[in-house]
Amino acid sequence: MSVLDQFSLGGKRALVTGSSRGLGKAIAIALAEAGADVVCASSKAGGADETAKSVESVGRKAWTASADLQFFAAYPALAARCSFIGIDHRGHGRGMRPSVPFTLEDCADDAAALVRALGVERVIPVGYSMGGPISLLLTRAHPDLVQAIIVQATALTFADSGLDRLRWRTIRLVGPLLRSWAYPRSVRAVLRRLLGDDHDFREYSGWIAGEINRNEALAIVQAGKALSLYDARPWASSLRKRAGSLITTNDHLVKPRHQRALARALGATVEEIDADHLAALVSPTAYIAATLRLIDAVTA
């Protein structure tokens, strides 16, 4: 009997962070050789993909998880200031594809489980758009893990009027669009218009389109339904954590007045940038500077 037979991990799943190279990559491959299926997590998606291929070469399954597309522009600045964890939520990017319907609460619990698995004592969740509700739910359900909270381009609720509720009822129509042959082409066209010829991220447009196209259609529809039912107005003010709020003042998706209502409920330090909902991608310089100021504010 070999050593690996004595320490078999058959039927187990392992999460390995920093798996793109070095010790993390070696650990991922060793766990696979011991029989485990491995989740290869890295902020460098290409490296994680290479590790996943090595895992699969020994007959095991691998899932790759790149850090959230939303924040890649801020990574160099964040890395100079602090350690950070990027999560692709269920059905998004390289996130998990579970058999149960998508819920925001499950995403918050996933984040808590990852933080605990990594041995991190406390975090400052930064939630942009849908990440805002997930960050608030994380803080509500797992307050021991949260030092402070930063919300960006998000709201207490996304369906506070009859018109909003009517719009959300049409979310199921998005599914066929996301699954259509035309969707990837339309994503690339929209990116070309948003970024133009002189934008710093123009060279990354192919990668950005590829990350967007990874999203699972059913999960996106279910996420829309979950957002339509979300309402933190009864409890957000009771969280009692230091908070920061980034408000996108030209946002056509999440109205600035709704963003400000959330900031008031949290008693948050506010930063405003003159941008629409895709501020992190289209206006990265302003977005990064505002995010760093909010981090300073909640950790001062």
Give a description of the structure.
The protein is built from 14 helices and 7 strands. By secondary structure, the protein is of the alpha/beta class. It has 2 domains: 64 residues, NAD(P)-binding Rossmann-like Domain (Rossmann fold, 3-Layer(aba) Sandwich); 165 residues, 3-Layer(aba) Sandwich (Rossmann fold). The strands form 2 sheets. It has a 4-stranded parallel beta sheet, sandwiched between helices. A 3-stranded parallel beta sheet has the order 1-2-3. β2, α3 and β3 form a beta-alpha-beta unit. α2 packs parallel to α3 and α5 crosses α6.
**CATH topology tier name of the largest domain:** Rossmann fold
Helix content: 40-55%
- Which runs of at least 5 residues are low in confidence (pLDDT < 50)? 60-66
Order of helices and strands: HEHEHEHHEHEHHHHHEHEHH
> Distance between the terminal alpha carbons, to the nearest Å?
57 Å
Helical stretch tally: 14
Roughly how many Å is the radius of gyration?
20 Å
- Please summarize the sheet with the most strands: 4 strands, parallel
**Full CATH superfamily name of the largest domain:** Alpha/Beta hydrolase fold, catalytic domain
The averaged pLDDT comes out at 78
Regarding CATH, which class of the largest domain? Answer: Alpha Beta
Shape: globular
Number of strands: 7
